[in-house]
């Protein structure tokens, strides 16, 4: 991950993490921590890997603590390039807000479990 200062001062829970998990005919993109411009190269790679599978996509953002416009832009790219619909599983409040203000909530499915 690149930083502007050469040192990342975010706490452990704010550090961005990405995982692309494939199971039973679907792929899940898991995001956690603070998703911002500093981690865009990693997020863009995770989005590209997710799309390349050609499988239905689930996005898990339950543990996202912050997301800026670059982060929601990458998720928009996922939504428009995925060959199948994209489902968000219990998105964090900040992600739900960004999905709403960008009108992505009209093009993706949002699922609340439990």
Low-confidence segments: 1-6
Helicity level: 25-40%
How many helices? The count is 3
Strand order of the largest sheet: 1-2-3-4-5
CATH homologous superfamily label: STAS domain
Number of strands: 5
Main beta-sheet strand count, sense and barrel state: 5 strands, mixed
Task: State mean pLDDT (0 to 100 scale).
Answer: 89
Domain count: the total is 1
Strand content: 25-35%
Q: What is the CATH level 1 assignment?
A: Alpha Beta
Radius of gyration in whole Å, from Cα?
13 Å
CATH architecture: 2-Layer Sandwich
End-to-end distance? 35 Å
Topology as a string of helices (H) and strands (E): EEHEHEHE
C-alpha geometry: globular
Find the structural class using helix and strand composition: alpha/beta
Quote the CATH topology.
Answer: Transcription Regulator spoIIAA
What features would you describe in this structure?
The chain is of the alpha/beta class and 114 residues long. The chain has helices at residues 40-52, 69-81, 93-101; strands at residues 17-23, 26-35, 57-67, 86-89, 109-111. Strands 1-2-3-4-5 form a 5-stranded mixed beta sheet. Strand 1 and strand 2 (26-35) form a beta hairpin. Helix 1 packs parallel to helix 2. It is globular.
Write the layout of secondary structure elements.
Layout: E1 17-23, E2 26-35, H1 40-52, E3 57-67, H2 69-81, E4 86-89, H3 93-101, E5 109-111
Parallel strand pairs: 2-3, 3-4, 4-5
Antiparallel strand pairs: 1-2
Helix pairs in contact: 1-2
Short description:
This is STAS domain-containing protein. The chain has 114 residues and is of the alpha/beta class.
């Amino acid at each position: 991950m690149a930083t502007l200062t050469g040192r990342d001062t975010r706490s452990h829970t704010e550090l961005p993490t990405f995982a692309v998990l494939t199971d039973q005919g679907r792929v899940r993109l898991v995001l956690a921590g603070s998703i911002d411009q500093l981690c865009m190269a990693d997020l863009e790679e995770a989005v590209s890997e997710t799309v390349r599978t050609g499988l239905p996509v689930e996005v898990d953002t339950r543990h996202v603590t912050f997301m800026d416009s670059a982060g929601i832009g990458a998720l928009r790219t996922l939504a428009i390039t995925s060959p199948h619909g994209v489902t968000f599983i219990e998105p964090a409040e900040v992600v739900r807000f960004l999905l709403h203000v960008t009108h992505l909530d009209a093009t993706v499915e949002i699922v609340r479990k439990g």
